[in-house]
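Lab manual, section 2.4: Encoding a predicted structure.

Procedure: take the sequence of the chain (162 residues), apply the prediction step described in section 2.3, and record the output as structure tokens. A sample record is shown.
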Amino acid sequence: MCSFKIREIQPKDNQSVAKVIREVLVEMGVPKVGTAYEDKSLDDMFATYNNDKMKYFIVSEDGNIIGGAGIAPLTNGPEGICELQKMYFLPVARGRGIGAAMMNTCLHYANSVGYDKCYLETLPYMEDARRLYTRSGFKSLDKPMGDTGHYNCTMWMIKDLE
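Recorded output:
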């Protein structure tokens, strides 16, 4: 029986979500500039994703937020392409199928609001994440799309939504 729950972010989650994301980024050795670490949106994720065709989901267990991921339009990208954003999980959440469940939740939402493709950016050493993306049907790209501001992310992937 699974003990985790995936739901939409609420205002009360903002501080915990920002802490989880920054903690995982530090753990992974991700640069603090040119990545999600410095995004101003981290401190008010509820407001950031409380817009048309945008949604952020959190995963909780025993009342604690242990990860999250969001969907938003790709900034300055082609029409119909969304971006999988800020998908991070604490160590307690890894290797349990939670990432796959979150991916399904996000892609289902993206498809339901009319996106045709989903784009993401990652780093070469985030191997577990890249395996999840590949299993989920994402294909590698040769160059970035849109204008995410994450110039330190050097791997780009895209998936056709059905």
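Check your result against the sample. The first helix runs from residue 14 to 27.
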